[in-house]
Write a structure and sequence with these properties.
By secondary structure, this protein is an all-alpha fold. It contains four helices and no strands.
């Protein structure tokens, strides 16, 4: 049951990334609570969207990979650490990457 749920969640993150990478006209947002930047604020919208899409695809892979690492661990505590780590640990790296992209592409 856990495999199905984790795979669905990871798949959703990967689909978000693919859909962001395919957008060409308007810049995508990173957070739901913050509006995406305006097209005029971004120097290269296609690269902005592509790099944000990659962030979400990598996050989906981390979720799935963390689950599988936890699944093969012989100790239950390590199992939980890896499973939760695949979801939580990438988040600060995603935020840092987004901020770097803001500095690089926002005019």
């Amino acid at each position: 049951m856990g495999l199905v749920v984790i795979s669905i969640v990871a798949g959703i993150m990967i689909i978000i990334g693919i859909s962001q990478m395919s957008k060409k006209d308007n810049p995508v947002g990173f957070y739901n609570v913050i509006d995406p930047p305006k097209k005029e604020e971004i120097s290269d919208v296609i690269q902005w969207n592509k790099k944000h899409g990659i962030i979400w695809i990598v996050y989906g892979i981390c979720i799935e990979f963390g689950f599988w690492l936890g699944y093969v661990m012989p100790v239950e505590v390590l199992e939980m650490v890896f499973m939760m780590g695949g979801v939580i640990i990438p988040l600060p790296f995603m935020v840092i990457r987004h901020r770097k992209l803001e500095k690089e592409y926002k005019t």
